[in-house]
Amino acid sequence: MISLPKDWLEQNNLEKGDQLVFSVQENGGLGVYPKKKIIKGTKKKIINIDENTISKHVLRQIIAAYLNGYPTIHIKSGTIFSTEQQRSIREKLRELDGCRIIKSSSKEIVIQNDVENIHLDVLKGIYQAHTIIISMFEDLIEALIKQNVDQASSVIPLDGDVDYLYFLHTKLLRYALSHPRIMGNLSLTNLEAVNLYTILYVLEKIADNLRDIGKNVGAYLKKGAIEPYKETYDFCIETFKKTFGIYKDSFKAFFNEMLDLGNAAFDQVKEIMKARLKVVRDLQMQGAEFFRSVKDWNEFKTFFEINEIPYLIESIFNLLEKIAQFSTTIVEVGFYRIFK
């Protein structure tokens, strides 16, 4: 039996029969929190803009307020909202779970943000983002093999699905880090929450890079210039498959706390870095060879018209290297779990 301070019970409106949450703290202490919701305060974020404010700047402020757990986000215009501002704000709100407009006019929009959605399973959200990323990898590799522009472009919208999961779960984790009662309901320690936040951030970045690869692969395939770079193109597919393997092994090492698999993924990243350097060197040599052989202005002009192709190839390899490096961050978080 535990006796609780009367003042604390009154402050939290607790009565006989109300449920409590107990959480063991990282310092060995025991935290006690009311399980039922406490009536929210009047915490509000006011965003002042005018009709000339760039929409992207407004959206960044909305996302920041959303992630920082403001229950009310009030957007005010000194004049009236532009059509573009109205459209972009409403489009972004459709991506942010728990947000809805409760008041709007030509000069203001008031958004209610549900900051206490404690029924989410963060690990499940991470796995959902992971399965989308697996699909993006598979579609891009198949698009390269089959030289399918549409399939390469089809991965681009999937990045938005990963973004949605990222915003949804990181909002909850950020809120829980400053509200121990919510953290207790999630059955997480602060360190575990930070680790999961890091994984979500990395997955969002990997999806961003795969989206950009989809754009570059689509642009490259539209050029129809596979043959002049056939050897490099085949090497790109091979490197893509290796990067995919690094990602899968990194994620498996994290979820299953497999130290050896994580170390192997770390070692393979060097191969992706070497592959990028090889391609850059090969493309530079091809360019230098052409300049030595050019005979007239028309040939020179043609070179610059198709010069986007080497840039697209190099960009794809740069993005693959970034994905491999991000994947090792997943491994590092897995190591923290093993050695905590």
Please give the structural blueprint.
Blueprint: H1 6-11, E1 20-24, E2 30-34, E3 44-49, H2 55-67, E4 72-77, H3 83-95, E5 99-104, E6 108-113, H4 122-146, H5 149-154, H6 158-177, H7 180-186, H8 190-223, H9 230-256, H10 259-293, H11 297-305, H12 308-339
Parallel strand pairs: 3-4
Antiparallel strand pairs: 1-2, 4-6, 5-6
Helix pairs in contact: 2-3, 4-6, 4-8, 4-9, 6-7, 6-8, 8-12, 9-10, 9-12, 10-12
What is the H level of CATH, i.e. the homologous superfamily of the largest domain? Phosphate transport system protein phou homolog 2, domain 2
Total domain count: 3
Extended strand count: 6
Give the overall shape, derived from the CA principal axes. flat
How far apart the termini lie comes to 32 Å
The CATH architecture assignment of the largest domain turns out to be Up-down Bundle
Number of helices: 12
Strand order of the largest sheet: 3-4-6-5
Task: Identify the CATH class of the largest domain.
Answer: Mainly Alpha
Helix content: 55-70%
CATH topology of the largest domain: Methane Monooxygenase Hydroxylase, Chain G, domain 1
If you compute it from the alpha carbons, what radius of gyration comes out, rounded to the nearest whole angstrom?
25 Å
3D structure, described in words:
By secondary structure, the chain is of the alpha+beta class. It has three domains: about 1-40, Pemi-like Protein 1, Chain: D, CATH 2.10.260; about 45-115, YhbY-like (Translation Initiation Factor IF3), CATH 3.30.110; about 120-340, Methane Monooxygenase Hydroxylase, Chain G, domain 1 (Up-down Bundle), CATH 1.20.58.220. Helices cover about 65% and strands about 10% of the residues. The chain has helices at about 5-10, 55-65, 85-95, 120-145, 150-155, 160-175, 180-185, 190-225, 230-255, 260-295, 295-305, 310-340; strands at about 20-25, 30-35, 45-50, 70-75, 100-105, 110-115. A four-stranded mixed β-sheet has the order 3-4-6-5, with helices on one face. Strands 1-2 form a two-stranded antiparallel sheet. A hairpin with a 3-residue loop joins β5 (about 100-105) and β6. α8 runs antiparallel to α12 (about 310-340) and α9 (about 230-255) packs parallel to α12 (about 310-340). It is flat, with a radius of gyration of 25 Å.
